[in-house]
Write a structure and sequence with these properties.
seven-stranded mixed β-sheet; about 210 residues; ditrans,polycis-polyprenyl diphosphate synthase [(2E,6E)-farnesyl diphosphate specific] activity; UPP_synth-like_sf; UPP_synth-like
């Protein structure tokens, strides 16, 4: 199989998963941490060089406070777990009051363990912020300039849209959608996505 160098992860469906289990919507986020760690180890084994996880967006912070607190805590837990692994970890997002204070030390890339895989975690992310859009003007520099072009975006939860995910880096990405919700992650999802990606004619417009 042709292995992508960089994959983007949109772990959607947490709230719908929780409702299906008879729980409150906020209960879904904590159940997304373990799948993320399994995915990290799987991608490391496959030889993928870089991963970008979609944590939450500026738009997501419009949700009820109980949900905001739940997905913020889940992002903090996930980053803290990843910091125990061999990784070069960077958290990117708008550091306003909605950005978890615990994650501010990670807004500069740090090497943990033996380093190796680059992991980017988008927290309180906004594509407008990334592009420096302000009063109709475009800023001088992409905020996520340290993030490379994404080969493959995998989205769980059945939605067929990018939802503002890294518009510059994903401009030529192939996108694979999984109907299962993120907390129901299985390694086979990734194997199927990469097998599908291997059959795509990647020309980058050439």
């Amino acid at each position: 199989m042709r292995i992508p160098k960089h994959i983007g992860i949109i772990p959607d469906g947490n709230r719908r998963w929780a409702l299906g289990k008879g729980m409150g919507k906020e209960a879904g986020y904590d159940n997304g941490i373990s799948p993320g760690m399994v995915l990290y180890h799987l991608c490391k084994k496959l030889g993928i060089n870089e991963m970008t996880f979609y944590g939450f967006t500026v738009d997501n912070t419009k949700r009820p406070s109980i949900q905001r607190e739940a997905f913020s805590k889940a992002c903090v837990k996930a980053v803290e777990e990843l910091s125990k692994e061999d990784a070069e970890l960077l958290v990117l997002g708008k550091t306003t009051s909605m950005f978890p204070e615990e994650l501010k030390p990670y807004t500069n890339r740090h090497q943990f363990g033996n380093g190796g895989m680059k992991i980017n975690f988008l927290v309180n992310y906004s594509w407008e912020w990334d592009l420096g859009l302000h009063d109709g003007a475009i800023g001088p520099k992409l905020k996520t300039a340290d993030v490379s072009r994404i080969d493959l975006v995998i989205r769980w939860g059945g939605r067929r849209r990018l939802s503002g995910f890294l518009p510059v880096q994903s401009v030529y990405s192939d996108m694979y959608v999984i109907d299962d919700y993120w907390p129901d992650f299985t390694p086979q999802h990734v194997y199927d996505a990469i097998e599908w990606y291997s059959r795509q004619d990647v020309t980058l417009g050439g």
